[in-house]
Amino acid sequence: MSEMPPEEPPAEEPPAEEPAPGVEAPAGMAPEEYEFWDDATLTYYERRADGTVIARPYSEAEVTQHQDELALDSLHSEAAFAIGYLDTRINLSLAFLALPEPTSEQTAAQIKVLSDLAAYSAGTLKRLIKVLSVMLNKPV
Predict the structure, then answer these.
(1) Fewest Cβ atoms nearer than 10 Å: which of 2, 116, 117, 129?
(2) What would the pLDDT profile of 32-89 be if each residue is shown by its tens digit?
(3) How many Cβ atoms sit within 10 Å of the Cβ of residue 45?
(4) In which element (H, E) is residue 36 found?
């Protein structure tokens, strides 16, 4: 007589995933848009095929990316200012070089311009290094 192993109960099916509750689309999300990133509230909105809009907070990686983008935007603004600032110092240096016989006061003023130009350029280089480190995802 052979013994039969006891039958295992049938595997239970996982419960059906409940649809996420819908939310109202944010003011900036046009009806034809399927996704919307709200940087003010750090919330991601998605419009599903049935028109329902769902929302979730940014993930940790998305928050980091958003912070990196804000830092790059800030550096861009600083770079735009730096171009004008550096151009002015360069023009002062060129004007000094055009002087046939600069006075000691003009020479002293030029030394200040060159010192400022060197210090500002060094700061600009540091900012550039920071931008590159963010872009390459290799913090310095």
Answers:
(1) 2
(2) 999 999 999 999 999 999 999 999 999 999 999 999 889 888 878 888 888 999 999 9
(3) 21
(4) strand 35-38
pTM of the model: 0.52
Residues 6+ apart with CB under 8 A from 67: none
Q: Which structure tokens are listed for 133?
A: 């480190």
Q: Which of 17, 66, 73, 68 shows the shortest CA–CA distance to 43?
A: 66
CA 123, distance to chain mean position in Å, is 20
Residue 29 is classified by DSSP as -
- What single-letter amino acid sits at 39? D
Burial class of 93 by CB neighbour count within 10 A (0 to 12, 13 to 18, 19+): middle
Kindly report the backbone phi and psi dihedral angles of residue 35, in degrees, each rounded to the nearest multiple of 5, phi listed first: -145, 155
SS3 (DSSP) at 124: helix
Give the 3-state secondary structure of residue 55.
strand
Mapped onto helix, strand or coil, the DSSP state of residue 54 is: strand
Residue 47: CB atoms within 10 A of its CB come to: 19
* Phi, psi angle pair for 40, to nearest 5°: -70, -40
Amino acid sitting at position 13: E
